[in-house]
Specification:
Elements (H helix, E strand, L loop, with lengths): L17 E6 L5 E7 L4 E4 L3 H4 L2 H13 L22 E7 L2 E7 L6 E4 H7 L3 E3 L2 H10 L2 E3 L6 E3 L14 E3 L1 H20 L6 H20 L13 H17 L1
Antiparallel strand pairs: 1-2, 2-3, 3-6, 4-5, 5-6, 7-10, 8-9
């Protein structure tokens, strides 16, 4: 009799992560590992590329159910749940902004926060000046969606640590991104095409940013324990309301 599979430990807090099945391309399913206490996802190799738009919607449903869970700070040293080697921090740049991720040097996978995953998938938009001003009147401190650093909205209009623009989960951005995934899948079915200039520029900037980050080998650490970021909570609620009406 086979023993049940062992739960994947969180790279940050080491608690067992919650397995979450989501839809993948070509009618398949895959299992992601979520830590709601750390707001993090572990991706085995290529899992992130295999998630279908329907799988992303299922993931949104799971995040909405846990939207008010207390969030604890990430550990100073994140470790691979497969080999226990320290994870290497890096950042990538996409059209919707810059996001941070931690990769296993042995290529067992990578760890990302929920907010970084949303930036990577293009589900966010930058906040306007009026929105930042209104938010500052309600809550002075938010956390950067890219690096997690605290941002004082009465003093800063971008993250003072990584310079990322302040962004919000947005239903229209989600809809555009999901439409884009369907278009990309259709293009792949039609055959390869030459990369456009925007894609080339994004890759160039991403490589430059990664080189800068690796040379610096420093990152900001620390969050207020047991906090729920209001910007994240507002965004996940907006998207969930849109999904509920859409379904």
């Amino acid at each position: 009799m086979n023993a049940p599979p062992t739960a994947t430990p969180c790279p940050s807090c080491r608690a067992p992560m919650q397995p979450q099945q989501v839809a993948a391309h070509e009618g398949a399913t895959l299992t992601l590992d979520l830590c709601h206490a750390c707001h993090g996802i572990w991706f085995d190799p290529q899992e992130n590329q295999r998630i279908a738009p329907e799988g992303v919607l299922g993931l949104f449903r799971q995040l909405h159910e846990h939207r008010e869970d207390a969030q604890q700070p990430l550990a100073r040293q994140l470790r691979c749940p497969r080999c226990r080697d320290p994870l290497t921090e890096g950042s990538d740049l996409v059209r919707s902004g810059r996001y941070f991720t931690w990769r296993c040097p042995q290529r067992h996978g990578r760890f990302a926060t929920f907010s970084s995953f949303m930036i990577e998938k293009g589900f966010v938009r930058q906040l306007s000046e009026a929105e930042i001003t209104a938010l500052a009147e309600r809550t002075r401190i938010i956390h950067c969606g890219s690096c997690g650093a605290p941002v004082d909205l009465r003093q800063d209009r971008a993250c003072p640590y990584c310079r990322a623009a302040l962004s919000l989960l947005d239903p229209q951005a989600v809809e555009r991104a999901l439409d884009g995934y369907h278009t990309k899948a259709q293009r792949q079915a039609e055959g390869p095409r030459a990369p456009d200039l925007a894609d080339a520029l994004i890759r160039l900037e991403r490589d430059r940013e990664r080189a800068r980050r690796e040379a610096q080998q420093q990152r900001w650490q620390g969050r207020s324990p047991s906090s729920v970021d209001e910007l994240w909570l507002a965004g996940i609620n907006l998207v969930w309301q849109w999904l509920s009406r859409r379904g």
